[in-house]
Amino acid sequence: MDSLLCEEELLDSPYTPECPWEPQHRDLLTSGLYLSLEAEDCKDALGVYLEKEAAYAPEHGYAGRLRAGMLVDSRIMAVKWMAQCHERFNLSWETIFCAINLLDRFISVNPSSKLKGWLIELLSVACLSTAAKLQEVHVPPLLELQLDGFDHLFQPSLVQRTELHVSASLSWRLNAVTAYSFMDPLIGCLELACPRVRSNLTNRVTQLLLGAMFDINFLDFCPCTVAVAGIRCGLDELLPLQSNGLMCNLHKLIPHGRMDELGTCFALMEEHVVNPTAYRHSYSPSSPVSVLANDRIKIVDCLVDLPPFKNSEIFFGLPSNPKKRMREPENCEANSPARK
Question: What does pTM read for this prediction?
Fold first, then answer.
């Protein structure tokens, strides 16, 4: 039998890939998929996103439930941690916005009273890991992902089971349509001639959309509405003389029934631009290797008291009957070894 091996010459030296999560300065524009497309193609993409965005929205009244359940601070901490991971692991903004969307949708379909602080941390890690698997070529290891930012350190096996549970709870609709998804096709529809102006606008709008993620008031608006409001604020800053004309062309692509909502959202976005301290939560990129005090780290294994979510017996190996309580995280925690 003839050999099935290809007659290819081997490389002189083995290939050694660079560490994919080494912090780098990533140009925000590199994540844009619409830079080389014509305006008509961007309009087609915009139409597709408009049809799909409702399927990826949190349940109605989600912002009010966050306030009632005292989860606003926990969500802000989760968004801040994800933004830090963008810097530390060179993750795309698409990954970050997708992860925030998964977290919001999961919280919106589960009782807020059952979501303790440590569980929000676990869900944040699981949502970011899931989004990274959808968007990134290289995904940081789960333990590396948790080096900094939270009080608990979760075993990879528990995080993976949580990923499955979150995915099933969201009916496996994971490649979310977010405000960031709308940014590139909307800016492409503006047909800006200067690449540098387009790049500056993209960067500025990304900053505005990320800031909006910290304010739960923006959860009352559709993703497209938030994106358009961010673009309008960016145009007012960078191209004040052309802003009105460009926005008139953009408004023709937005359903007419959203004009009132757009005006309210823009007013809210403008308030944040004038007074950024009202919603700014600084996040500085951390070192990939962090030194954490032993008394702050709690390694949480699979034996935790998780809420009785749907199908919890399948994904967590725990009884769905809420009367059958298992140990709290504090009872199954162990101090981690000192990190170098």
Answer: 0.76
| Distance of alpha carbon 309 from alpha carbon 318, whole angstroms | 10
36 Cβ neighbours under 8 A, 6+ residues apart: none
What whole-number distance in Å separates Cα of residue 261 and Cα of residue 222?
A: 9
Measured between alpha carbons, how far is 44 from 252 in angstroms, rounded to an integer?
14
Residue 323: DSSP 8-state:
T
Residue 330 scores a pLDDT above 90? no
b/e map 53-73, b = 16+ CB within 10 Å: beebbbeeebbebbeeeebee
Can you tell me the mean pLDDT for 15-27? Answer: 41
Instruction: Give the tokens for residue 301.
Output: 């294994």
Q: At what angle are helices 243-251 and 179-189 packed, to 10 degrees?
A: 110
Read off the tokens for 70: 């005292």
Q: How far apart are CA 146 and CA 21, in angstroms?
A: 13
Which of 277, 262, 176, 276 lies closest to 226, judged by CA? 262
Mean pLDDT lowest among 3-12, 114-123, 138-147, 221-230: 3-12
